[in-house]
Amino acid sequence: MFFADGGLVPTERFIATRVEAELAFVMSKRLAGPDCTMFDVLNATDFVVPALEILDTRIERVDPHTKATRKIYDTIADNAANAGIVLGGRPIRPLDADLRWIGALCFKNGQLEETGLAAGVLNHPATAVAWLANKIAPLGLALEPGQVVLAGSFIRPIETRKGDTIQADYGAYGSVSCYFA
């Protein structure tokens, strides 16, 4: 699922790709709920890094025969459309920046498509990671050291096709990009 920063994403592996800008948390300690807070997340995180999430569907968004569009339960059954991750930019220690104010300018083929701030994810991206740790706790699961956790997108998905280049500029925190080949 990991693609190199600036690397090629093979379009033949996918049906209908889209891209979102996110922050990825790389865990240094085990993080388990219940009652996990954003402060627990910050303490258990080695670093945060700019990321692009590549979305795809395992089924067409519009059924070619019935013309019916996908429903939310289709997305859930489809593992919320996650298909790949591109990590890039500058790793950030979680307390070295106010993560809410990290933003991205997202370009498609050199044209600005979307902008956003990480505060768009539950007011703080670490809150989303805490939510996840709490959600999986009843199943006896936890976030483990070394795992990469995407906090959630703070832009609308950008549609991509073969030949498109996507670049997200995170300002002082660097950039991350990929090319759909």
UniProtKB/TrEMBL annotation:
<dbReference type="GO" id="GO:0005737">
    <property type="term" value="C:cytoplasm"/>
</dbReference>
<dbReference type="GO" id="GO:0008684">
    <property type="term" value="F:2-oxopent-4-enoate hydratase activity"/>
</dbReference>
<protein>
    <recommendedName>
        <fullName>2-oxo-hepta-3-ene-1,7-dioic acid hydratase</fullName>
    </recommendedName>
</protein>
<dbReference type="InterPro" id="IPR050772">
    <property type="entry name" value="Hydratase-Decarb/MhpD_sf"/>
</dbReference>
<dbReference type="InterPro" id="IPR036663">
    <property type="entry name" value="Fumarylacetoacetase_C_sf"/>
</dbReference>
